[in-house]
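Hey, can you fold this one?
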Amino acid sequence: MSTTETQKKARWCWRKDLAAFRGLTDRERTGFLLVLEWFENFRLRHELSAGREAAKSFWRCEVLGKDRQREPWQLEQWEDAIKWYLAWLDACAEEGGDHRSLRERVRAAVNSACSRRGHAPRTKDTYGRWAARYAGFAGDEREVMREETATRFLTSVVDDEDCAYSTQKQALNALAFFFKHVLGQEEPVFNVRLKKTGARVPVVLSQVETQRLFGALENPDPGPDPALATATASELLPKDVPTPKKHNARYGLVARLQYGAGLRLSEVVRLRVKDIDLDRGTVTVRLGKGDKDRMSVLPKRLRGELAEQIERARALWEQDQRDGVAGVYIPGALARKFRKAAESFDWFWIFPAKQPSVDPESGLRRRHHLHGKVYNEAIKRAAVEARIEKRVTSHALRHSFATHLLEAGTDLRTIQEILGHEDITTTEIYLHVATGANGLGVVSPLDQFPAAPPCAVHSLTLMATAAA
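Sure. Predicted structure:
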C-alpha cells in the first residue's frame, strides 16, 4: 500500500504514545486526548501537514476565533497538549519514524497512484478524499484491505447518507481504484447495489435576472441587449437592491463569458490565450469533461473586453518572465511534448491568479488560474445583492445559457454539441424548464378563462353575499 521508503520507517501513533506516557494523570490524559482529536480533525479537514504551522492555524481559528470566550484553565491545558504533540513530532522526526495516520497514508498512496496513471488533479483529489474517508471507517490496516469492509462502507454511503446516484458511483469508483492500483487486487467485488435517484430540475435564471446578476458583479455596461429591449429599468435592477460591493467587480467578465459560451466552472477558469479566437468568434474547450475537446460560441459583445483582458494577462506574463516564474501548469503528456509551452504566452491563462504560488505537484513557483471556488463565491454574493431568490451558483449560468437557447428556437442537438453532453437525454432536461413555444408549450387552463368585466365580478359577489 505504501512506498518502499515508507515501509522502512517505523510507524508512530500519538494516541498509543499518549496512552503510555507516564507524566500525566488520567484526568490530564483525557483532556489531552480530547483537544488533540479536535486538532487532528481540524488539520485533516483543511489538509494541513502536521507541525507548528498547523498548530498555529488551529489555535487562531478554533481556539481563539470568532471571539470565543475561554477559561484560563482551558487555554493552559490545551496549550500543554499542543506542546506535547509538537514535542512528540520532533522525537518522531529524530528517530526517522512515520507519524502519519492511516487516513493520511492511504490518501498519499492513492495520490501517488493517480499521478503515475496521469489522472487529472481533480480526479486525484476526489479519489484521495473518498479513500481517506474509507480508511477512517475501516480503522486499521487489516480492515482497510478487506473487500467486506469496503462493502460495508459503500452500503453506509448508499443507505445512510441519502446522496445522489452520481455521488454513490464516485465512491464506488474511488474504492475500485484503491483496491486495483494501490492494493493490487485485479477484480475487487463489492456486494453493494447503488440506489437510483430521480433527475433534479436545474436552477435557471430569467434573462432579466441574469442581467441583474451581471449588474451586481459590476461589469461595465456592454450596451443594450436586444433580447431585453422590452424590460424596464426597474425590472432590470430594482431600486431597493443594495449598491454592489467592489470585491465582485473582477468576476464580471468571467461570468458573462461563462453564460455567453455555456461553459462549466472548471472550463471557464482554465481558458488559455490560444483557446480564444477573436476573429472567428469561437471558444475552444480543451480537455473538458470526459477528456474531450469541443467548440463553443464567443459572444460578439465580449470581444473588445476579452482583447483588453488578454493584454492585461500579457502584462502579468511579461512580469513573470522578468521575475523568473516557472510559467504555467501544462498536463503531463503535453508538457513532455511541448517543453517550452509552459513559458509561452499562447498557453498563459486568460484569467490568471493575482499572485504566483507554489505548484503542489512539482514544487515550482507558478502562476495559476483564477480559483474556481473564489469565483463561485463571488457569484453567490452577487445573487444575494441582486435579490435573486434562487440557489444561484456559477453553474446556473450554464443552465440558463442552454434554456435561453432552447426558448429562442435552437434545436436540441445543437445545444448538446455546444454543451459537450455525451447523451442527448442529459440535454433534454432543459425541456422541463424552458417556457414558450419552444419549451413546455403549455398554457395554464386558468389563463384560458375569459376575463370577467369588473361589474360582473361585483354582481357575483353581491349574489353570493345575499345567498349567505
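The chain has three domains: 4-100, 103-182, 207-309+375-468. Let me know if you want another pass with a different chain boundary.
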